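Prompt: Have a read of the protein record below and flag anything odd:
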Amino acid sequence: MRRLAAVAEQSSDFIGIFAGDGSGVYLNLAGRAMAGLGPGADIRGARLLDFVAESCRAFVRAEVLPSLSGPQGKWEGELQFAARGSGDGRPVYFKGFAVHGADGSHLGLATITRDITEQKRAEDELRRIASDLSEADHRKSEFLATLAHELRNPLAPIRTGLDLMRMAPGDPATAARVHEMMDRQLGHLIHLVDDLLDIARITRGRIELKKEPVDLRQAVHMAVETSTALIQAGGHVLAVELPSEPLPLDADLTRLVQILSNLLNNAAKYTPGGGRIRLAAWREDEAAVVAVTDSGIGIAPDAIGSVFDMFTRCAAAWTGPGRARDRARWCAGWWSCTAGGCRPIVPDAGAAALSRCACRCGAKAAHRAARARRYPRRRH
């Protein structure tokens, strides 16, 4: 017995023996340390349940003890032991078995229990790393899907420009106007391809902004230019309402144009042919607000919460005014987060034919815009 006790004292596991009535008979040094007991503490008044955390004592009473005292005579699995004598639990792997005498009588039970706190921490860390990797992969896929979607937008006006140049080959004014438009759209494409090539931005889950003083009215004109072909293809009538005074912003012009053209493209795609689309911009306190309204259907109330999620499609047309086919709302929510102080405004239930975004507009941006007009940057 002494030799067995000497071996048990060298173990780092909780090794305990309890009498048939549940009182303590023996507990090694590691077990005493785990329970917060001194080396010479009397354990005769301690019961197995006293070492178990409050959170799983009911389970031990209902499942573990009956298994140990029943025909099976053993039980093993994960439990929570009270840490340092407190009610807080620490994870352990418990192995318990019944102790029988030579005549087969039940003398008590013994346990070898291992602290698995570090193992659990390692498992949690692995789960966290797996979650981070999954999130990074999701961001990468989202980034690439968004770029693929956005790369198509400048192609429509470029194709239209080529058609115009073929239709009026000898008109210098038309050629100059179309050339200027195509040059701007090509600039958008180059900007987007630059983002695609910068893999470091993908892993950070963000796109670097190229902020500059911008007049929101200019961004509106460029967005209309981008979406005109799609609007005309649907036979829609577009009305644009802009203030006479500038709406200066400090923003990424390309991203801002993408936001507005997305709103216009969605209005054109999902409004029945011959519909009406209205784009209005105005100043509202320290913000510049843009609203795109169309004569299509609204969004069901239960879909409002996800209206700005990426590539969201409503499950079915709702039965409100202007009922029509299902409506996809890839609104500018994702890009809004990258445009610099620009945010989507979720519409009221049933009014999803109105999509708005607001951009911060103030004196600082106005000063920068004025300075940029006075000292224009040279392009290389």
Summary: The chain has three domains: 2-115, 121-208, 211-374.
